[in-house]
Amino acid sequence: MFAVDAVSKSVDQIIQHKIDQKTKPVGALGELESLAKTIARVQFSANAETKKLTIKEPGLLVFAADHGIAQYGVSIAPSEVTSQMVANFANGGAAINVFCRQMGLNLEIIDAGVLKPLGLENVTEHRLGNGTSAIHLAPAMTLEHVKQGFEAADEVVERHALSGCNVLALGEMGIGNTSAAAAIMAALLELDVHKCVGRGTGVNDKSFELKKALVNEALKRHGSKIVSPVHALAYVGGYEIVQMTGAILAATQRKMLVLVDGFISSVAALVAVKLHPAARDYLIFTHVSEEQGHQLLLEYLQAKPLLSLGLRLGEGTGAALAFPLVQAAVNFYNDMASFDGAGINNLA
């Protein structure tokens, strides 16, 4: 249902020349220069008449859902914490609320399928069910659920696009979702489970071994049926991962920049890129988390994250914290003087 165009590389030389002519030694702003180039490519592709880079109505979407596997001891917290945290988001008390207020990001919380409907005024309801089935015992969901999730995400992104938004950040909340994410990663990249499964919120050794065993069991049960990225979502995924994948494809189809948070968001990005490789051009990976699978995943996606802060919270917190770097890249590209303009000899 999505069509994603690759960004145009035809203006690369113009972009690089503009960056190199700023009043600094070539490359002196390091990764900020690469970030500016990524942003410029996307925005030049969206509008060939672009003269200045822009950030308009930036939004951060947090998708929340529960996972059947969480009932089997793979997390330090029970599934009920997902709903409790969604209520905390709605009341403005979580880390992501604090950071979004600080960074000027428009926060939207989406209930993609927590255990019970919450009926909270500040939460968008796009529920696909009351949590997924336990993936080591049954398929997480149906293919129809995946389709419905993509459609729901498209509706959310469309609303933000109509408000003028051209930058979206993604986050999630869901007890047990690192198990689902690891299973998707192992299935799509044909990796050993032990390389993909991490400790999530910090399980002890016994729970860690159980988590690896259950994810491995899930892949043995469903592996032969996972014949596409969509099947990976249906058999071992999560409702929030489905809708994050849909949001990435919906945003990149509209030529919006997407700020990817940690491990779960990056797995959604992996699925999106597997479905539409051109989507990779629009993605900015904001941080590397403590999950061992995340580091391998970033390598596969050829992504150099902006931050390394030891984060393992989720919620989109890494994306929010990296947002000022995106602003800085835009501002230096737009406003920093050139050698000619400032009357300074070129340092090259």
From TrEMBL:
Pfam family, one: DBI_PRT
Active-site residues, Swiss-Prot/TrEMBL: E315
InterPro entries found in the cross-reference section: Nict_dMeBzImd_PRibTrfase (IPR003200), Nict_dMeBzImd_PRibTrfase_bact (IPR017846), Nict_dMeBzImd_PRibTrfase_N (IPR023195), Nict_dMeBzImd_PRibTrfase_sf (IPR036087)
Source species, domain of life: Bacteria
Catalytic activity: 5,6-dimethylbenzimidazole + nicotinate beta-D-ribonucleotide = alpha-ribazole 5'-phosphate + nicotinate + H(+)
E.C. code: 2.4.2.21
Stored SUPFAM superfamilies: Nicotinate mononucleotide:5,6-dimethylbenzimidazole phosphoribosyltransferase (CobT)
Keywords, sorted A to Z: Cobalamin biosynthesis, Glycosyltransferase, Transferase
Pathway this chain belongs to: Nucleoside biosynthesis; alpha-ribazole biosynthesis; alpha-ribazole from 5,6-dimethylbenzimidazole: step 1/2
GO biological process, one term: cobalamin biosynthetic process
Enzyme class: transferase
GO MF: nicotinate-nucleotide-dimethylbenzimidazole phosphoribosyltransferase activity
Family designation: Belongs to the CobT family.
Function: Catalyzes the synthesis of alpha-ribazole-5'-phosphate from nicotinate mononucleotide (NAMN) and 5,6-dimethylbenzimidazole (DMB).
Protein name stated in the entry: Nicotinate-nucleotide--dimethylbenzimidazole phosphoribosyltransferase
Origin species: Shewanella gaetbuli
Lineage: Bacteria, Pseudomonadati, Pseudomonadota, Gammaproteobacteria, Alteromonadales
Gene name for this UniProt entry: cobT
